[in-house]
Specification:
This protein has about 650 residues and is of the alpha/beta class. Helices cover about 50% and strands about 20% of the residues. It is built from 21 helices and 21 strands. The strands form four sheets. The chain has an eight-stranded mixed β-barrel with strand order 13-14-16-17-18-19-20-21, surrounded by four helices. β9 and β10 form a beta hairpin. α1 runs antiparallel to α2, α9 packs across α10 and α11 runs parallel beside α13. The longest helix is centred in the N-terminal third of the chain and has 57 residues. The protein is rod-shaped, with a radius of gyration of 51 Å. The relative contact order is 0.06. The structure holds ligand C2E and magnesium ion (2 copies). The site of one magnesium ion (MG) has 4 residues, from loops.
């Protein structure tokens, strides 16, 4: 199922809002601008044409007045009528009247079609000038003889032609606005469709992870906040599951990023299969996923969720041609039980996830308050660890590595111990992860290299030769340039590089395979042996083993523990041994505690072994005792009589 298509109870009401608003804004503003400017223009046209009309009619009235003075003085009605009839050429003039000084009408002109009974004069028309009344323009001009007023000319003009013209302009303006609206709408609609698509894509990128199709960290944070607000209103709590893949980097590094992406996609859809319809999965970071599960009130329910999430890792995932078995660690925390804020809840789930990892990975853990105390303890430990070297609290112990056939000591592994002034002896299992996480491992690692090389030098000086010392090295040390650190230790101690061996765990080996290959090759050139530690616990793959310049594999003790009874472990061990053979690698079995284990490993053709059966990790002096014993036994074997 495509996770994107899942019904989503938390869907954020986002969508292409911006495009729609832009369309509206552009269309409305274009049309309003056009309409307003058109109307302003129309008003301007109306006003200017009206004033032109007034000027024109006033001029005609004056001419008529000038030409009519004689007709009034001599009461020549025919001449007066002729003068007024001359005004008929102007279509707008409806009527013209000539009055004498007493106001009697001397002559009139009435345009064809205008009722003759119409009153020409208006009470409001001044003695001279114009007035607008009843949709008409009235203009009066005085008739003078010298300075004496002898009468007046009164013209009445219809405003209809002017109004009709202006109405046509307004209609054109409106039509142009409608056309512009249509055009603007068509144009903007086209742009809007593109904008909608872009907006949808941006919305998707802001809230979704393009690789898995799940919502992203940003969406998760918003959703957690929203759920917290709902919890404030109702009494239901909710759970947050934080999932982290255990060996994702290995997949990326060995099979390539496209397989890594494919794996994340496959896992995302697998996750959603084990969720309730109301649960939502998010991709929180590189190989981290978050599941938010509403209405979760008690630990039993959380336990159930943790188990359900682990089901996703049960079956191998099919990724292209590969069948990958991924493992993951899950931390579960509940709001409001485990935290009072979004950040606190994520931190709680993170602590629980950390706990799941330290419980051996591929499991889940529910948050409990002690975990924060665990984090505090780690912080205190980190502070103390920074001082451990200068306070001389670190020690090395050495555990023999024997040849399985002869049981002779062929080397020793240097193992770190921290003698804490208050807490006593602390196991590296506890403090190495803290040292790695904080970076202190670089200084500690340098100290271990120096001390082990010095010790080897001391053993040589005392005449004990013919064995190597193996030093564990962490990924961070390799990144910091292992070759330079080793050169320093070799130079300071003066030992033969062939007596030094480096152990690198399978996990760190593949972390940055390209730079590791180059560095390890340089070490091998010096004659330093490189061994893969804890082999079988990572994503063991022949593909990368072949590329690494290594000479040894150390089978992790988890596979040795249940030998020879466990058929699974027997199959794995035997497969590792035959694979190592085909690659000409030496195999060391770790954690050999019983004779049965030793014999079984011997029968499989395992080369070397290390474990409590032969010796626990012991002090450098105790190693000397063992070597002396070895020498004595050897002498006795060579010459039984003199030894006796
Ligand atoms: P490792 O390198 O796999 O070391 C072997 C671990 O198995 C040691 O635990 C050893 O004491 C233990 N062991 C050996 N034989 C037996 C056995 O027969 N039975 C059982 N149950 N355990 C056995 P230790 O010393 O606690 O070290 C744990 C891990 O800490 C080491 O695993 C190694 O990864 C890391 N470590 C130790 N010293 C250093 C160091 O100097 N630098 C770095 N980077 N890591 C170190
Ligand atoms: Mg080791
Ligand atoms: Mg080991």
């Amino acid at each position: 199922m495509n996770p994107e298509r899942r019904k989503d109870p938390f869907r954020t009401p986002t969508g292409p809002q911006l495009g729609r608003r832009l369309t509206r804004a552009v269309v409305v503003s274009v049309c309003t601008a056009l309409l307003v400017s058109g109307l302003i223009f129309d008003v301007f046209v109306y006003v200017s044409q009206r004033s032109a009309l007034v000027d024109d009619v006033t001029a005609q009235a004056r001419i008529a007045a000038e030409n009519s003075s004689a007709a009034i003085l001599f009461n020549d009605v025919a001449a007066a009528a002729q003068t007024l009839a001359g005004l008929g050429s102007s279509a707008a003039i409806e009527r013209a009247d000539l009055h004498d000084a007493q106001g009697h009408t001397v002559a009139s002109y009435v345009a064809p079609g205008v009722p003759t009974g119409d009153k020409a004069a208006s009470a409001r028309v001044p003695r001279e000038g114009h007035v607008f009344e009843d949709g008409r323009l009235h203009v009066k001009a005085l008739v003078r003889e010298g300075t004496r007023e002898v009468g007046s000319v009164h013209l009445r003009v219809s405003l209809r032609p002017l109004h009709d013209r202006v109405a046509t302009y307004v209609a054109i303006t409106l039509l142009a606005s409608v056309l512009a609206f249509g055009l603007a709408f068509a144009l903007v609609f086209g742009i809007r469709r593109e904008l909608d698509a872009t907006e949808q894509r941006l919305d998707y990128l802001a809230y979704y992870d393009p690789i898995t199709g799940l919502r992203n960290r940003h969406a998760a944070n918003e959703q957690i906040q929203r759920l917290i607000e709902t919890v404030g209103r109702t009494s239901d709590g909710f759970a947050l599951l934080l999932l982290d893949l255990d060996d994702f980097k290995v997949v990326n590094d060995t099979l390539g990023h496209s397989v890594g992406d494919e794996l994340l996609r496959a896992l995302a859809s697998r996750l959603t299969q084990f969720m309730r319809p109301s649960d939502v999965a998010f991709r929180f970071g590189g190989d981290e996923f978050v599941i938010l599960s509403p209405r979760v009130a008690d630990a039993t329910h959380m336990q159930f969720l943790g188990q359900a999430a682990m089901l996703a890792f049960d079956e191998p995932l099919k990724v292209g041609v590969h069948e990958l078995r991924v493992r993951g660690s899950v931390g579960v925390a509940q709001f409001p039980g485990d935290a009072d804020s979004a950040a606190g809840l994520i931190r709680a789930a993170d602590s629980a996830m950390y706990e799941a990892k330290s419980m051996g990975k591929n499991t889940y853990a529910l948050f409990h308050a002690d975990m924060h105390r665990g984090a505090d303890k780690r912080m205190r430990m980190e502070a103390d660890l920074r001082e451990a070297i200068s306070r001389n609290e670190l020690r090395l112990v050495y555990q023999p590595i024997v040849d399985l056939r002869t049981e002779r000591l062929i080397g020793v592994e240097a193992l770190l111990r921290w003698v804490h002034p208050q807490l006593g002896v602390i196991s590296p299992v506890e403090f190495i992860p803290v040292a790695e996480y904080s970076g202190i491992i670089v200084d500690i690692g340098q100290w271990v290299l120096h001390t082990a090389c010095q010790q080897m030098n001391a053993w040589s000086a005392a005449g004990h030769d013919g064995f190597f010392v193996a030093v564990n090295v962490s990924a961070r040390q390799i990144r910091r340039g292992l070759k330079a650190q080793i050169d320093l230790a070799l130079a300071a101690s003066g030992i033969d590089p062939r007596r030094l061996e480096i152990e690198i765990t399978e996990h760190s080996m593949v972390e940055d395979i390209e730079s590791n290959v180059a560095q390890l090759a340089a070490l091998r050139e010096l004659g330093i042996q490189v061994a893969v530690d804890d082999f079988g616990t990572g994503l063991s793959s022949l593909a990368y083993l072949k590329r690494l310049p290594i000479g040894k594999l150390k089978i992790d003790r988890t596979f040795v523990k249940d030998l020879p009874e466990s058929a699974d472990d027997a199959a794995i061990t035997s497969a590792i041994i035959s694979m190592a053979r085909s690659l000409s690698l030496t195999v060391v079995a770790e954690g050999v505690e019983t004779v049965a284990q030793r014999d079984y490993l011997n029968s499989l053709g395992c080369d070397c072994a290390q474990g409590y059966l032969f010796s626990r990790p012991v002090t450098a002096e105790a190693i000397v005792d063992l070597l002396m014993l070895r020498a004595k036994v050897a002498a006795a074997e060579a010459d039984p009589l003199s030894a006796a």
